[in-house]
Design brief:
Length: 146
């Protein structure tokens, strides 16, 4: 499936680049007919000055369709929407349980919340302060005397 998706993406990019080049070249051609009056609906900056031929429009749409199909075929499998289904798959998968990184297809999705990264550990700071006040910190005497 990966080879098919890569081939679709490659062909889609080739067709799209050809369509863009053709549209650019067509816009440079001198027009022998009189320019069309600007549309009253669109402002002058958005009014198209060049009408593209039908073959360039169809080639562009075809290339976008090929690229969309290639991207969809090359994407990873979707995860289950229901949390209990995902958790059941994770519990049954030994490889997923061995992954500890969050966001790499396994591991604990709440690891960032459980570690509380970026938060100050109040209890740990209190213990360190208690050791410091009590004189346990490497030969330091009591800093506060009653």
């Amino acid at each position: 499936m990966a080879a098919t998706a890569t081939a679709l993406n490659l062909v889609g990019v080739l067709f799209l680049s050809h369509a863009v080049y053709s549209a650019y070249e067509h816009s440079l051609l001198p027009s022998s007919r009189l320019p069309q009056p600007p549309s009253s609906i669109l402002p002058a900056s958005l009014d198209p000055k060049v009408n593209l031929p039908l073959d360039i429009i169809l080639e562009t749409l075809f290339s976008v369709f090929l690229l969309c199909a290639g991207v969809v075929l090359s994407s990873a499998d979707l995860k289950p929407i229901q949390w209990r289904v995902w958790a059941g798959q994770l519990e049954r998968s030994k490889e997923a349980r061995e992954i500890t990184e969050v966001g790499s297809g396994g591991g604990n999705p709440y690891q960032g919340l459980e570690e509380r990264a970026g938060f100050w550990d109040v209890r740990g700071a209190g213990r360190e302060f208690g050791k410091w006040v009590g004189g346990d910190a490497k030969g330091k005497g009591k800093a506060i005397e009653a």
